[in-house]
Amino acid sequence: EEIKIFCPATIANVSCGFDVLGLALDSVGDEMIVRKTTEKGIRITKIIGQDLPLETEKNVSGVAGLALLAKSDYEGGFEIEIDKRIKPGSGIGSSAASSAGAVWAMNELLGKPFSNLELVQFAMQGEKLASDVAHADNVAPAIYGGFTLVRSYDPLDIISLPTPAELYATVIHPQIEVKTSDSRKILKTTISLEKGIQQWGNLGGLIAGLFQSDYDLIGRSLHDHIVEPIRSILIPAFDDIKANALKAGALGSGISGSGPSIFALSKGEENAKKVAQSMKETYQPIGIDFDIHISKIN
Ligand code: HSE
């Protein structure tokens, strides 16, 4: 018995929600086949597209799967094949797609004994392996779909948020790799009250905008006063990409997850395409290679 699934890429943080907010992309992701085996444990039999470890303990899908097996009374095991299309270190939740995909597929094959919240907990073990921190802001939207909020880590509390009907994401990935563990090390561990006030005002505003389908409010709220000023120095021409995306009509723009990908949200596909064009025209003349995607958010 086997299942073939799509594992979505995700945008974490979404500017104002560091480690708590994320969204799933509908048209960017990996494919994974998960198969039940009589042999116990987890075997990763094939990975195409990227050079990643096959050893269960060194692979995020293996580690997430082991966390699920440890809580299950299932006697057998699983085999995993991954068609890895999301580049590791690109900032759109490559490790989360594999961690979340593995446990989601296993749960389906077992007849859904686990809740989505439990699946997130298992998948977080994969994130811990990948980035040293068991953050849930990529795995939660990968499992729940759409926008999610990690209201609390202890106890884990995840809220699914509504997505306005015409919301699109444009994501550009300059072809460099930034490890999440590295881009976390450069962050300060404290913030000022002043910055806190700005940030939670925006986070509340963004969430209200999603509930009210208020695109202007979403746009007004897409700011990050804490992490972006520090991390953006790792990203080629970040300020120009963002400024040109806004000029082309984006509601807002920022770093996707820990970067180097940059995202912009737009109302409607036409605007998302114009934003994509502006991003291309920013990178092409300065000779930066990139991938670019447009995705509806559901
Ligand atoms: N919230 C995490 C970070 C996401 O920004 O480090 C990593 O994809």
From TrEMBL:
Pfam families recorded: GHMP_kinases_C, GHMP_kinases_N
GO molecular function: ATP binding; homoserine kinase activity
Subcellular location field: Cytoplasm
Keyword Metal-binding carried by entry: no
Annotated keywords: Amino-acid biosynthesis, ATP-binding, Cytoplasm, Kinase, Nucleotide-binding, Threonine biosynthesis, Transferase
Main location: cytoplasm
GO terms classed as biological process: threonine biosynthetic process
Pathway the protein contributes to: Amino-acid biosynthesis; L-threonine biosynthesis; L-threonine from L-aspartate: step 4/5
A cellular-component GO term for this protein: cytoplasm
Residue span, GHMP kinase N-terminal domain: 68-146
Catalysed transformations (reactions): L-homoserine + ATP = O-phospho-L-homoserine + ADP + H(+)
EC annotation from Swiss-Prot or TrEMBL: 2.7.1.39
Tagged with keyword Cell membrane: no
InterPro entries linked: GHMP_kinase_C_dom, GHMP_kinase_C_sf, GHMP_kinase_N_dom, Homoserine_kinase, Ribosomal_Su5_D2-typ_SF, Ribsml_uS5_D2-typ_fold_subgr
GHMP kinase C-terminal domain mapped to chain residues: 207-283
Function: Catalyzes the ATP-dependent phosphorylation of L-homoserine to L-homoserine phosphate.
Family: Belongs to the GHMP kinase family. Homoserine kinase subfamily.
Record's protein name: Homoserine kinase
Organism of origin: Flagellimonas hadalis
